[in-house]
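Researcher: I'm preparing a figure for a lab meeting and need a structural model of a single chain. I don't have an experimental structure, so a prediction will have to do for now. The sequence is pasted below. Please return the structure as tokens so I can convert it later.
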Amino acid sequence: MTVSPPHTETPELELIIELRGVHKSFGGVHALRNVNLAVPAATVIGLAGENGAGKSTLLKVLSGIYTPDSGLVLFDGIAQADVTPTAARRAGIGAVAQELSLFNHLSVAENILVGQEPLRGRFVDRRRLNELAQGALDQIGSRVSPKDMVRDLPFADRQLVEIAKALVSNPRVLILDEPTSGLRESEAERLLQTIHELKASGHSVIFITHRMSEMFAVCDRFTILKDGESVAMRDADDIEPDELIRLMVGYELTALFPKKPAATDQPSDEPLLSISNLSVPGSPVNSVDLTVRSGEIVGLAGLAGNGQNELLEGIAGVRHARGQVVIGNRSGPFSHPSKALRAGISLVPEDRKTQSLIQSFSIRQNLTLSTLGKISRLGFISRRKDQAVAERWIKELNIRPSDPSVEAGALSGGNQQKVVVGKSLQADPSVYIFSDPTRGIDVGTKHEIYLLMRKITADRKGVLLLSTDLTEVVGVCDRVLVMFRGRIVDELAGDDLTEQNVTRASFGGEKAS
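Model: Understood. Here is the structure written out token by token.
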């Protein structure tokens, strides 16, 4: 990120929010215990910790969604007997949650001002509604129209609408939980600039992100959570990224990306998955050829909107496709994800909340959902096998909490993603397709997923990885295919696989300005 204004000394300001010894549990499981947090005026606080450390739970306490079991929550020095969403709003607290809370059937403007629509008499003033929404969108540099329907927007634009929704009420404290996880580079930079502008005008921000460069670009102070406790508070000037990571994960993380196989260990030329002349109607994808060989991780890169996700969905049977897909002795395109799965292709989609999990189902039910035939007889599920499968993946993937009966919707984002990956592993495909699998995930869990990908390829299977994180693409993949306007325009490997070359190819071969 390029947004990094010089640090200036500021006097100690009055506290807007203070937490003292806050505790919160669910069904006897501690989500927060003895958490302390201070948010002064005109300050950006970075809330750091692994997935499952309690960050999102803490933010829900501040927003009034959860009531703490014990401890003190103070707004402007006044202890709150009962923190409700209404009390939080009156105190000037606005929040952008990690999971979107938009109404797909409403327009952008209607979502941004839901519950606070301007009226003309007894009717909504549509002109004023659109004007107010446009002002919030302009503040974060979004090009979305207030009149667009949310259901028609890609994920990145929906995330910007969620942020505009929080900004429109001009909050004193803005809580941002992974706000850049689905944004393009330019949009993320604009949002970081907005955070600086809010601070300059006297607002405070509580910022959660797993992108270290963003945290150090905007944060004045850090509060670090581990296993539901606040383990450290540091000024940004007094801590280095490596030390912050150590406090988060509890150990030294010497290398984020696993070592790539040596040239002598590279896979054979025999393709495991072969795609020829593939097109996806209604998308930019046109006449794509690619192969994935056993034992390799193939990356898919390019600027958002050039057809990467549509290509993956076409291969996995989520979208109708034309052309040829060959895996083993099976050929497609496949007309349904179940047919692609039976052929040996498993997709881990980009949006775990809406595309991967049934939030109201338990961890166990989600893990076995796509392979019920393996644990059933005469149409009845074997509870013994069902439980054994869940316990296996909970242990192997270190899913927390480890109780298989816990609802998936109650898990942190990183643990939800582990459940999604576990479901794919249980299917035991030949080719794993991952679409932005580390979006919104802490550095420790990212490392676990990278190790898992290498374990998959060590078993002579293949991985096709789409990632919006350029460092990840270069650090993880053996080969990278770059898409531009629906076609693959370059293939990079070895010494040619650099962030500069991927960026250049993403612009159609022209050097990025």
